[in-house]
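ugh ok fine here u go
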Amino acid sequence: MDEVRRSGGIARVQYPYGDAAWLVTGYEDVRTVYSQKAFSRTGMSQESAPRLTAGLLLQGGIGSLDDSIHTKLRRVIGRELTPARMATLRTAAAAIMTRRLAELAATEQGDYVSVVAKPYSLNVLGELVGIAEGDQQDVAEWVSALLADASVADAGARSAETALQDLGKYVLGLIKARRTTPTGDFVSDLVMHGDDLEKWELVTVVFALIVGGYESSAHMLSKIVLRLLLSPGLRAEMRAHPDRIPGAVDELLRTIALAGGEGLPWRVREPISLGGVDMMPGDFVVPSIGAANLDPTVYADPERVDPTRNAKPHMAFGYGARYCLGIQIARMELEVAIGMLLRDYPDARLALEPEQVRWHDGSAVWQLADLPVALGAPSYADGAILEVNGGVM
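structure:
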């Protein structure tokens, strides 16, 4: 990636699946892909679109919809994620994290990924969307299958197709149940207030929150915790200055890639010159969010995590009209999880050498295979209560 940036920022690349694409690495060029009408996320063929994994869902989600429909659904989600709902969800997230950390602390060196991050993300998602506890594991498996790779492309595609069908049926059932018996969760209010939405639009919104709200959040949290365990100075700064936790979360999101640094593919729909490269209709373009977020022309000492950095907004959640709809939820989850770890377990440490950390390479989401952590005894001696963005940890 650095070589591409040094040579002009754009290169022709071939991904494991699909056609060749233009890889775009510069901050301004990536923003152009996200914001100019010359680039589109619609009309993507599953066979020809460049991608790292065989079964990755490229169509049917909010991000692949026509601009006007995409804007409409964004507005609906924003309307339902009210300050009151987010405050309630933050309280629930703190209670969930308390249980998850206590379970990990009861082990000598448990796996943070499976004991804390995954169930935490899944439980918070369940609170928001109204997924019954007994259904949550099935939902988790469907989402994982949608993001999974396979050594044989056809087998991976069939697995993803089955998961897509199963999850789709579940979402339809959830919406039907909430029409009959509202329970006050996001889906209930969406159904009650969504007279302007067609049935497929309701399904698309709920589906997007589920697919985007589980594995992505869980694995980003695990990677951030790994970074913190290897950065004692940063941990000390955040514990001494809790008001810097949101800034630190923002910086950690900027410097830690979700999916190896690449974004989803876009299609060129009218001739355009980008970074000195002429692109024609039908060409594929893959914006590298990870590279753009480390662009040294935008961020001085780009790999350093500086909670007080005052710079241009990063693009970990996209940009412009294609900005991630779940950003409020993702930030809240991370702030609660990190704040509680710093407050309650200041002596937490990695339970193996850094070079022994294992990574899982079978998914579209860059993730740890596991993360052995020794939390140590909880520390409540100073009676500190961390408050972040008006919420109590």
